[in-house]
Design a protein that fits this description.
Order of helices and strands of chain A: EEEHEEHEHHHEHEHEEHH
Largest sheet of chain A: 6 strands, mixed
Strand content of chain A: 15-25%
Low-confidence stretches of chain A: none
Strand content of chain B: under 5%
Shape of chain A: globular
Number of helices of chain B: 10
CATH topology of chain A: Rossmann fold
Structural class of chain A: alpha/beta
Number of strands of chain A: 10
Oligomer: heterodimer
Shape of chain B: flat
Order of helices and strands of chain B: HHHHHHHHHH
Strand order of the largest sheet of chain A: 6-7-8-3-9-10
CATH topology of chain B: MetI-like fold
CATH class of chain B: Mainly Alpha
Mean pLDDT of chain A: 92
CATH superfamily of chain A: P-loop containing nucleotide triphosphate hydrolases
CATH architecture of chain A: 3-Layer(aba) Sandwich
Helix content of chain B: over 70%
Distance between the termini of chain A: 56 Å
Radius of gyration of chain A: 19 Å
Number of helices of chain A: 9
Largest interface: A-B, 33 and 26 residues
Low-confidence stretches of chain B: 226-231
Bound molecules: adenosine-5'-triphosphate, magnesium ion
Structural class of chain B: mainly alpha
CATH class of chain A: Alpha Beta
Chain lengths: 256, 231
C-alpha cells in the first residue's frame, strides 16, 4: 500500500513536483504517463527515497519515507525497481546479479540465494543464461534479468521507470509479457510507461502528469475514451498519430 | 677508460649485498604502495565528501604533494621535521615520503574512476536495499578497479624505480648499494648494468601480475567475454 500526499519537490528555484497525491492499494497496477520532463522519474524515485522531497508525505506499508529516522535500506529492500537502462551489474554474472542483495541484505545463504535466483530466471525464461555476464545478453534479456533481480528480494511493490523505452521494438513484447504475468500474480506495481496497450489492459488506474502536476487520474476506460483535459488529449494524440500517419502514408504509397 | 670487466659483472650479478638491496627496493615499493593506496582511498573519499572542509583539505594535500619534488619532501621529513621535534628513522621517513607522495597521485585516479561509473549503478545498488557502503564495495569499487588498474599498475612500476630517490636520505635500497660498490672499485658501467637488470626483472615480474589482475577484473567486459565464451 502506497500513499502519497501533497508531494512537492524543488531543484533550487525550479519546481519539479507540485502537490502530487496518489494511492496505490495492494495488488493494484498504476501507470504513470506524461511528456518528457514532467517529473515521472522524480516522482517514483521519491517513493524509495532515491530522491528527497521538500513537502508532503509518502507512506510505503505504513513507513514514512521522508522521516529522517526511516531506515531507507530496509524500506528499499521491500520495493523493487526496474530502470530504463537496465542497470545490471556488469562485473557480476546473471545469477550473481540476482544473489548479491538477498545475501547482503536478507542474509540468505549462497545455496538458498542461488536456488531462488534460478527459480526466478526460469520464470522470466532465462535460466540457460544464468552463468553469462550481462554484456552477452540482448537488451530485452537484460531487462528481464533486471526484473528478476528486483523480484529476488521478494518485494511488496515493484516500480518500473520506462522499462521498454531503450529497447528495440522487437524486444518490447518479451519484457511486457513478463510484466503482464507479474501483474496477474497480484503484484503491486507502479509503471512509468508510454506503452498504451499495456496501460489499457493491465492498469487499474492511469495517471497523467504534466509540468510536475498530476493533471488527470482515472481508470484506463475513462482515460482513453473520455479524456478530460486538453493537455492529456494532445499528449495522447502525439503518441498515437505518428504511427497512424506513417501507416496512412504507407497505404497511400501502395495504392499509387 | 678501462675495458668491460666480465668477471666483476658476473660477480656482482649474484652479489648477496646487491640482492639484499633489491629486496629492500621490493618491500619498500610494496609497503609504500599499499599504504599510499589506502591513504589515496581516504583522500578520494574526502574529495567526494559532502563536507566542504574535507574537500578543501584533500585539495590542499594533493596540491602540496604533487606540486613539490619527492626529493624535497624526503629531505624535509628526514632532516627538517626533527627541528620541530618530530624524529623519524630512515626507513620510516622513506615510507612516509613515498606513501604520501603516491597517495596524492592515486587519489585523483580513484576519484576519477569511481565518478566515471554511471549514476544509475549506484541507484540500482541502493534500490535493492544495499547500504551506501555496501553499494560502494560490491557495485562501484569492483567496476572502478577495472578502470583504474592500468593506471595503478603503471604507477607501481614507476614507484619501483622512484624508491631509488630515498638513497638521498641513505636508505639502503638497490641504487644506494650499487653506488656504495662503485665508490669501492669504480666499475661504474658493470654495476649500473647489473642494477638495471635487477630493475628489469622486478618490473617485468610486476607486469605479469598486472596483466593477470586486469584479466580478473575485466570479467564481464568485452575482451574477457570472448574467453568466457570459449570455456
Ligand atoms: N538533478 C537535477 N537537477 C535539476 N533539475 C533536474 C534534476 N533532475 C531532473 N531535473 C529536472 O526535473 C524535471 C523532471 O525530470 P524527470 O526526470 O523526473 O522527468 P521525466 O518525466 O522522467 O522525463 P523523461 O520522460 O524524459 O524521463 C526535468 O525538467 C529535469 O530537467
Ligand atoms: Mg524519466
Amino acid at each position: 500500500m502506497i500513499r502519497i500526499r501533497n508531494l512537492t519537490k524543488r531543484y533550487g528555484s525550479f519546481q519539479v513536483l507540485t502537490d502530487c497525491s496518489l494511492d496505490v492499494p495492494d495488488g493494484r497496477v498504476l501507470v504513470i504517463c506524461g511528456p518528457s520532463g514532467s517529473g515521472k522519474s522524480t516522482l517514483i524515485k521519491c517513493i524509495n527515497g532515491l530522491e528527497s522531497f521538500d513537502e508532503g508525505s509518502i507512506e510505503v506499508d505504513g513507513i514514512s519515507v521522508g522521516d529522517p529516522s526511516a531506515r531507507l535500506p530496509q524500506l528499499r529492500a521491500k520495493v523493487g525497481m526496474v530502470f530504463q537502462q537496465f542497470e545490471l551489474f556488469p562485473h557480476l554474472t546473471v545469477e550473481q546479479n540476482l544473489m548479491l542483495a538477498p545475501r547482503r541484505v536478507l542474509g540468505r545463504g549462497r545455496a538458498e540465494a542461488r536456488d531462488r535466483a534460478h527459480a526466478l530466471l526460469d520464470r522470466v525464461g532465462l535460466l540457460d543464461q544464468a552463468a553469462k555476464y550481462p554484456a552477452a545478453l540482448s537488451g530485452g534479456q537484460q531487462q528481464r534479468v533486471a526484473i528478476a533481480r528486483g523480484l529476488a528480494m521478494d518485494p511488496g511493490v515493484m516500480l518500473f521507470d520506462e522499462p521498454t523505452s531503450s529497447l528495440d521494438p522487437e524486444m518490447i513484447g518479451e519484457v511486457l509479457d513478463v510484466m503482464i504475468r507479474l501483474a496477474e500474480t497480484g503484484m503491486t506495481m507502479i509503471c512509468v510507461t508510454h506503452e498504451l496497450g499495456f496501460a489499457r489492459h493491465v492498469a487499474d488506474e492511469i495517471v497523467f502528469m504534466d509540468g510536475g502536476r498530476i493533471v488527470e487520474a482515472g481508470s484506463p476506460e475513462e482515460f482513453f475514451t473520455n479524456t478530460r483535459t486538453d493537455r492529456a488529449r494532445r499528449f495522447l494524440a502525439r503518441l498515437l498519430y505518428p504511427g497512424e500517419l506513417a501507416q496512412a502514408a504507407h497505404v497511400e504509397r501502395r495504392l499509387e | 677508460m678501462t675495458m668491460w670487466n666480465w668477471d666483476a659483472f658476473f660477480g656482482y650479478l649474484f652479489s648477496p649485498f646487491l640482492l639484499r638491496g633489491a629486496w629492500t627496493t621490493i618491500w619498500l615499493t610494496a609497503a609504500s604502495g599499499a599504504i599510499g593506496l589506502a591513504l589515496a582511498g581516504l583522500v578520494a573519499a574526502a574529495m567526494m565528501s559532502n563536507v566542504a572542509a574535507l574537500r578543501r583539505a584533500a585539495q590542499v594535500y594533493v596540491w602540496l604533494f604533487r606540486g613539490t619534488p619527492l626529493l624535497v619532501q624526503l629531505v624535509i621529513i628526514y632532516t627538517g621535521l626533527p627541528q620541530i621535534g618530530l624524529r623519524f628513522s630512515v626507513v620510516a621517513s622513506a615510507l612516509i615520503g613515498l606513501a604520501l607522495n603516491e597517495a596524492a597521485y592515486l587519489a585523483e585516479v580513484i576519484r576519477g574512476a569511481i565518478q566515471s561509473i554511471p549514476r544509475g549503478q549506484r541507484n540500482a545498488g541502493l534500490a535493492l536495499g544495499l547500504t551506501p557502503v555496501q553499494t560502494m564495495r560490491d557495485v562501484l569499487l569492483p567496476q572502478a578497479i577495472r578502470i583504474m588498474l592500468p593506471t595503478l599498475g603503471n604507477s607501481l612500476n614507476g614507484l619501483l624505480k622512484t624508491t631509488s630517490i630515498t638513497s638521498i636520505i641513505s636508505m639502503e635500497e638497490l641504487l644506494r648499494r650499487t653506488n656504495l660498490l662503485i665508490q669501492e672499485r669504480f666499475l661504474t658501467l658493470e654495476l649500473f648494468v647489473v642494477a638495471s637488470i635487477y630493475y628489469l626483472v622486478m618490473t617485468s615480474a610486476w607486469q605479469i601480475v598486472q596483466t593477470r589482475l586486469e584479466a580478473r577484473y575485466g570479467r564481464g567486459h568485452l575482451r574477457a567475454l570472448d574467453n568466457a565464451e570459449q570455456r
